[in-house]
Input
Amino acid sequence: MHLSSARALLAEAERANERRMLVLAGDRAAGVRTADTLLDGLPIPLSETTLVATQDALACEHVPTRNADRLLGTTQRAVVVDLHEDCRPNALGRVVGAVDGGGLLVVLAPPLAEWPTRDGAFAAGLAVPPFDAADVTGRFRRRLADTMRAHPGIAIYDVDTDTLSDDGRTRPAPRLPDPDPDPQPTADVPAAAIDACVTPDQAAALASFAALRDPGHAVVADADRGRGKSSVAGLAAACLAAEGHDVLVTAPRRRNTTELFARAGALLADLGALASDGDTVETAAGGRIRFSKPPAAADLPGDPDAVFADEAAAIPVRLLESLLDCQRLAFTTTVHGYEGAGRGFDVRFRDRLADATQTVHETSLTDPIRYAGTDPIEPWAFRALLLGARPAVEPLVADATPDTAAYVALSGADLAADEHLLREAFGLLVSAHYRTEPNDLARLLDAPNLTMRALVADGHVASVALLAREGGLADDRRAAMYDGQRVKGNMIPDVLTSQLRDEAAATTVGYRVLRIATHPAVRSRGLGSRLLGELRAEFDGHADWLGVGYGATPALLSFWAANGYSTVHLSTTRNDTSGEYSAIMLDALSDAGRALHDRHAGWFADRIGGVLSDALRDLDADVARGALRACATTPSLALSERDWRTVAGAAHGPGMYSVDPRPFRRLAVHHLVAGDADLLSPDEQRLLVGALLQARPWDGLADDLGYHSASQAMRALGDALQALVAAHGTAAARAEVARFTED
Output
């Protein structure tokens, strides 16, 4: 490629404060040589250039592809990304965001026509057992090539034939937009803070944060990446600290808050209020800004005046809920980005925030700060990686019902051939699940173990389920799994084999529901249940089971149980994303599937009493109740005469639970799993969980359940035990009861 063409492309980017992309397609070694020559001749210092690749090849900073997240929060004039050996969608999204306005993104790729057939590390990883690399398609790579050819601002140079098929320059040349009027300071926002804002958008958002000067308020700021929401949060935190307030900042990682602390420190210095900086910024007025990781921040250490949660969508909801005890709150979250959408915050936490005591203020930032709003590379990334995917607009599906929607299978080929269908289906997943990300788009299009089913109304997606085929593994693979080897793409067989020691579990074939989502406009109409019913009818006779694994909540347990799924396992550690303990549930479809379910449901009921008193001692009682009630088995009661005398004597006489907890726990599990669900009130069932199964201290348990005292809670447990003895007791139990009830 002639250096003059590359210089002209870069000059256009600089004039417009936009970015440009240069694709060097063809032999990798030739592409590296071309990139080296171009970078040597372009007016970009090597200190402002980064190579993202599996191996180092240029005289600049090198970041391994798997570690592309190191570029988060940084900007470079030029980034070279090598997609030959590892075309990793998440890494590509991170790389695009690291290029500054006036900069250049250089992509090393195979010949574009051949790219879909070229394997790489990421593509090879999609071949989960029992599939192999030959089963993986190249639809995602074809999507990249097609969008690169179609979008403006992208130059394509064939290094093998020395052919520039597109010089990447826009015609007519772009012009910078006229600047917006300068925002004016107000009584609530210092002039120095307004001056520190890069865009009027930021200044308007900062005005919303001013509500935090008074307690009883919460601010939610959302934006796409690169809009400066963390900078605004830093300015707002500085304003509070300058007035003497203690501001606690939390985020998934300390590095996520680098920009927040930098902007806060700079503003406090301008205000003459900065006393010290570092991990904790202190002010002359006695205020401070400090950081804590989410688990520690949830305890509100030091009783802060305000809490700022940056990238709140990536913080478990149970930790965000703990922050609601603070009367000044700020949450920033990403709408679209390399890791998917900040919709998890909306889906999981918004309702709880709305029910809190704080008045909620909403603000959004739309103007990019690193490059002009006319930048052509951002729309390319949004289209290629579906970062902006959304469900169908509400009127298009508003009339959908379980009776009118059509059940359809959506293969990767179907989705690749219909952009609107793909955007609507993927958009539904994004809207309902925080962890839907660009890697998931590639899996959806190319992975041989994944398939999708949907309910479609008038050609638009109203409900969707993403499924993964699991199991059916060979003897040697199952033996390796039993011995502790992880087998990708087979989560349920893996857990049942390696953790629960069932080497035969992976002989069966099942489909795990990875994601299920219904359009917000038509939720609670039964569409999700209709979709699951159709799945059962379709796969009955073609698989052994349907399954699901998810962060357990009472509502989700009830939903899955109502649709025929039965609990076989509760994890003993919390899920990193949801912050909840995960449940695994099965719906058996064949004799082999029923045998698998029956033995694991039985094992679950047998062991859960001990697990609840140990690893799951902090499990929410309603989650425990829901998981037990959803277990389709009948646990053995098998209490001896002496056991029944012990239980009945504690219920009606002077007997004590503490002398022998075993029969009490067995009775509690039996009833919560298979007994009359209406025999005991919800609070009495919670007492069975908290007192008998989790052995929680009485004072805390009574307080949590709303009893006036521990003794009142003990009496309520006694009443519950009397009902259980009457319902389940043998002749020995009745005889013991008679000793204390007959005149």
Notes: Residues 191-365 form a domain with the Rossmann fold fold (CATH 3.40.50.300). Confidence is low (pLDDT under 50) at residues 338-342. The chain has four domains: 3-166, 191-365, 394-610, 641-739.
